[in-house]
Amino acid sequence: MAKTILSITLVILFWGLTLATRTKLLPLRSRNAVAAVAPGITDGICSLMVKTQGYTCEEHLVTTPDGYILNLQRISSRGPLGKKSPVLLQHGLFMDGVTWLLLPPRQSLVFLLADHGFDVWLANTRGTKYSLRHTWLPSNSPDYWNWSWDELVAYDLPATF
Predict the structure, then answer these.
(1) How much is the pTM?
(2) Residue 34: pLDDT above 50?
């Protein structure tokens, strides 16, 4: 019972944090729509959350066939590079890649995997704070937001790989 209550509490907490970061969606008529939705987006997950912990991190951009530009992060160990398999961590609903970095390094799956020699990649699907760009649609356009789970599976996932 205690685990169930803890799980529900964590889900509500993450959901609340996600909604709190999305509250700036109203000023979409701003000249700089990306900055209005996600201030500090140019900083990126690497400089905000990974490099501050002493890890090497690279930001990678991939473009889906339908024009969405996704931001991926590659995290390496603080020690010698291992030769283990790559690991892709995908965030859940209403979240982004930062979800995997909220715990301290000794408790975070990202950092634990990196410390054990794995090539760790974080994915951010379209419409999240770090993947708001598109090759021709502004993020304040209704057409930008006209996608479903089908596009995430058909375009985002293959582009990520």
Answers:
(1) 0.70
(2) no
